[in-house]
Structures are given as structure tokens and as C-alpha cells.
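Predict the holo structure. Ligand: pyridoxal-5'-phosphate.
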Amino acid sequence: MNVTRATFDEVMVPNYNPANMVPVRGEGSRVWDQEGNEYIDFAGGIAVNVLGHCHPALVGALTEQGNKLWHLSNVFTNEPALRLAKKLTVATFAERVYFANSGAESNEAALKLARRYALEKFGEDKNEIIAFNQGFHGRTFFTVTVGGQAAYSDGFGPKPGAVLHCDYNDLEAFEKLISEKTCAVMMEPLQGEGGIISPDADFVKGVRELCDKHNALLIFDEVQSGVGRTGQLYAYMGLNVTPDILTTAKSLGGGFPIGAMLTTAEIAAHLKAGTHGSTYGGNPLACAVAEAALDVVNTPEVLSGVVERENLFRELLGEINDKYNVFSEVRGKGLLLGAALNQDYAGRARDFLVAATNEKLMCLVAGANVVRFAPSLIITEEEIRDGMARFERAVANVVNA
Ligand SMILES: *Cc1c(COP(=O)(O)O)cnc(C)c1O
């Protein structure tokens, strides 16, 4: 059957607006479309393809598990899930793991656990959740309500209650909001969708201290920042602040859908048998691939390589900006970088993305003013230089249009 981009408009719900070409194959940081055009991938499937496309270790793990056991539900446990959970607990602060299939579901689990924990330990009045403006936590109704962009949660009827917001990096505002009624604070330790906003070190420390003072759980949403993206396995490790609950997805499966919620044994104990669950969560295929990805990513070579690649990205973006003067700054950490457009190009991030696609480069935006890069953590120097040459042509096209 012949399918094209036009088929999308015929048969798909129109909630997405995909690019005009249809990719059919990928290898490393290169992707080919139906016409045989070759693209460099600086998007990584929105910070997902942590080892690029079709990494041999992931293909091997998927193939091996695919010939062994696909699915049994959580009526049974399975070896890949147990191995992955073990490795995640060894590598992080966490002692217990809950598997889901996406970032939103991992956050949903974290929020439900926080509510249950507070109810059982402190009573029903301790139920408020504080999150931050511009934050993003997924698209289920609870997580989109906790997210800090009303535009995403409005228009679907009554929202889940007791969810408050304040500005990111505004400790004073946060201190005014938190109280004995706060059960949990959910934050990204580097805001992704909101525009690649790094937290001030003092802000994160202050949030942690105020959470402790008010017996509120601190939930770090590391769905985008986790699994090596910032040059550390998880971003919290670079902030010297440990959360009570951490959620991880996107890069975790390197392209295979999986998410996880990590926490301590004491907190986990409140999600007793029957309180929460998922049919697919901890699926053997997903866990086998994620285990293979974690084995590759959580090594000094790959993690220090992220910092080297970040430096090259920053250097080449700086050279482009010297010529064309389009960015006010390049921000973010590791291979989660945002080039923020200056006043002259305010609101035009999408124009740069479209121009990049035309030059056979895949990148992302983060809001209307930021071009975002979230490539494979093992993208080669040659691919970075080739991709940046394409990006420079894209920038020139926008500037000269
Ligand atoms: C992408 C993202 C999510 C949602 O993940 P899904 O897998 O799309 O449900 C949640 N939080 C953050 C920080 C994200 O970047």
C-alpha cells in the first residue's frame, strides 16, 4: 500500500502537524525519507534517541528479547524489568522503581503516590501540589494541569484541583506559596519544553529546604533531562540536590516506549498492591532495550563525551551568531541546548525549524523563541559539523528572506 504525507490528513486525528516528508530509515544520527533524501538528526526524536537510530546494542537487545518473551502483564514479573530496576537503583538515590510506558504516566504515578503518601501520613488536608510556570509534565489531564501552561490544560472541562503554580527561579514567590498543606512540589531540574531554562543552584537548594521544612515531597521530572542528557546520568547529580521521587522516560528506552518512577523504599511503601498499575508497564521488550541503553550511556566515556559535544555545539552556534546575529544566548546543559532568538527574530523559532528541515537538518523548537537541539549523545564530530553547516544555511535563508 502506498502511503504519503497526504495520507496523514486523510486518516489521522489532526492533533499533530508533521513535516512534509516521511522518514523511513535511520542509522546513527542520519535519517532518510521516502524520496531518499538524507537528514542529519539534531532532534533525537525529542530527546529520545539517546544513542541515535538503530544502535547495534539496542537492536541486539530487542531482537534477542523479541525471540524470547514479549509480554505477560504485571500478573508476573520478568527478568529484564528486574535487571533494569536493579541497575537504576544502583545508579541513583532510589531504592524502588515503578515502570510505566511514557513520561506522562510516570508523572501521573509520582503525583498519585505523593497524594497517597501525604494522606496516609498527614491526613486529607495535605493535598496541594506546587509546580512552575512554563513547566511541562505530560498530557494526561492530571499532568497537564500540573504543567505550567494553561493553554495546554484549558478547554477540557473541570481540572483536577489543589494545583498551584509560581515562577521558576523565584524562591520568594515559592516560599509564599508553600505551606503545611503542600504535599508535593513537581519541577524539571532543567525546563525543556518551556524554553530550555536552567535553574539557579540556590533556587533548587531553597526549594529542597522548604520542602523539608513543610514535609512536602520533592518530585524531579527528569523525563527530558535524564539518562545522560546533561552530561550526568541525571541532572540532579549536577545540582547536589536529591529529590524524593524522580521520573524518567524519553531517553530511557532510546526510542522504545518506557518510563519509570524512582523513589525511596519508605515512600514507595505507600503504593500498596492494587493502588496503581499499568498493563504494559515493565514490558520485557521495553526493559531489555532500556537496560542495553543504560549500560552504554552510564559510562565515563559517553558521559564525558556529552560535555565535549556540548562545547562543539556552543562553539559552532557562536560562529553562526557572529555572522548572522540572530541569537541572544545559547543555554541549557549537555546535549539539551536552546538557541534563544534575539528581539529581531522574536516569535520565529518555527521559521528556523522549517528552514532547517529544508536544508535536511532535523532540529526542534522549545516555545516560539528557542531553537532546541537534543541529538544522540554519541553523535560524531563530523555529523555535528555537517549538521551545523546545514543549520548555517538555514539561518542565512531566514535572515535573507
Ligand atoms: C516529554 C515530557 C513529558 C511527557 O512525556 P511523554 O512520554 O510525552 O508522556 C513529561 N515531562 C517532561 C519534562 C517532558 O519533557
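The domain at 57-297 is CATH 3.40.640.10 (Aspartate Aminotransferase; domain 2). The mean pLDDT is 98.
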